[in-house]
Design brief:
The chain is an alpha+beta fold. It has two domains: 3-42 and 113-145; 46-110, no CATH class. It contains three helices and six strands; from the N terminus they run ααββββββα. β5 and β6 form a beta hairpin. The longest helix has 36 residues, at 110-145.
C-alpha cells in the first residue's frame, strides 16, 4: 500500500471517528442533562427577589415562607428602577421561599440548582475528555494496523 493511499484511508477514518464521537458525546451530554433534572432557565438566571434599595413594589401577597411560623407579606411583583424596559418582575411561582441568616429572602431550591449545574459542567468536561482520548486511541490503533 502506498503512503498516499495509507494517508487517505487514515484521513477518512479520522473523519468518521470524529463524526461518530461528536454524535455519541452529544447524546451523552443531553442524557446527562436530562438525568440531572437541571432547569437551565432557573440555574442560569439571576434569582429575582424584591430588593428595597433598587426596586419599587407593585403587589404584595401573604405567602408561606420556610423558616417562618405564619404567612408573611412578600412583594410578589415589582419594578426594577435600573431596568429601562419598565416591565414588572415577579417571583417564581411554585418555588419555596426561605429566610436567610441575614433576614433576606431567597429561593430554597436555588442552591440545589447551583450544585446540579456544577455537576453537569464536570460531567460535560469528563465526556469531552473521554471523547478526545477515545479519538486518539482509535486513530492510533487504526494507523498501527495499516
Amino acid at each position: 500500500m502506498s503512503t498516499a493511499d495509507r494517508d487517505r484511508r487514515l484521513l477518512w477514518f479520522t473523519r468518521g471517528v470524529t463524526v461518530a464521537l461528536i454524535l455519541v458525546c452529544n447524546g451523552l451530554m443531553v442524557l446527562g442533562w436530562w438525568v440531572s433534572g437541571l432547569n437551565l432557565d432557573v440555574a442560569l438566571s439571576k434569582p429575582e427577589i424584591y430588593d428595597v434599595s433598587s426596586n419599587y413594589c407593585v403587589k404584595v401577597r401573604l405567602m408561606e415562607v420556610v423558616g417562618v411560623d405564619r404567612p408573611m407579606k412578600v412583594c410578589t411583583e415589582w419594578l426594577d428602577l435600573a431596568d429601562p424596559s419598565g416591565k414588572t418582575h415577579t417571583i417564581r411561582e411554585g418555588q419555596a421561599l426561605t429566610v436567610g441568616v441575614n433576614g433576606t429572602l431567597h429561593y430554597e431550591e436555588q442552591r440545589n440548582e447551583d450544585y446540579r449545574l456544577i455537576g453537569l459542567v464536570l460531567f460535560v468536561m469528563m465526556v469531552i475528555g473521554a471523547g478526545m482520548w477515545a479519538k486518539h486511541y482509535f486513530v492510533a490503533r487504526y494507523a498501527r494496523r495499516l
